[in-house]
Design a protein that fits this description.
- The chain is an alpha+beta fold and 145 residues long.
- It folds into two domains: 79 residues, Membrane-bound Lytic Murein Transglycosylase D, Chain A; 43 residues.
- It contains six helices and four strands; from the N terminus they run βααβαββααα.
- It has a four-stranded mixed β-sheet with strand order 2-1-4-3.
- A hairpin with a 4-residue loop joins strand 3 and strand 4.
């Protein structure tokens, strides 16, 4: 069974946000934000467009709300994300489809393989193999090596 703390909101980031500012804005503490989003410092926010914050408001905020199960590849975890604005009885919205074309996905995979090959000091084809075996998860690819 999910507890109230299992539910999160997806909060957009604004340029210049810091962990302290986000903690105050979302009535939580820095340690919780770091743990929840797999952050090490404020500089970790630079590569993100959003973070996950625990839902405040207790059971009343959660009851009757629509949720989606969201996997965050950056935080390497699955979240139960509340969908704000959805009322009880509304049909849940389907998740948005990826806006990347297959060519763009291939280009990003090649770039990731190049970076991984430099990090692991192997050729690009070997890095691409490990990347595919790990379903494009860089951390898992490095562990497989």
């Amino acid at each position: 069974a999910a507890t109230e703390k299992s539910f999160v909101l997806k909060a957009p980031l604004v340029k210049g946000d810091s962990l302290a500012m986000l903690a105050v804005r979302h009535a939580t503490d820095i340690v919780t934000l770091k743990r929840l989003n797999n952050l090490t410092s404020d500089s970790s926010l630079a590569a993100r467009h959003y973070i996950y914050v625990t839902c405040v408001g207790g059971a009343a905020a959660v009851r009757g709300s629509h949720v989606t199960f969201t996997y965050c590849p950056i935080a390497c975890r699955e979240f139960i994300t509340l969908q704000p604005g959805a009322e009880e009885g509304d049909k849940p919205q389907p998740p948005a489809a990826s806006t990347l074309s297959p060519a763009q996905v291939d280009q990003l995979t090649a770039k990731l393989a190049l970076l991984l090959s430099r990090s692991l000091r192997v050729d690009e084809q070997t890095a691409l193999y490990y990347l595919r075996e790990a379903d494009n998860d860089v951390k898992r690819a490095m562990q497989l090596h």
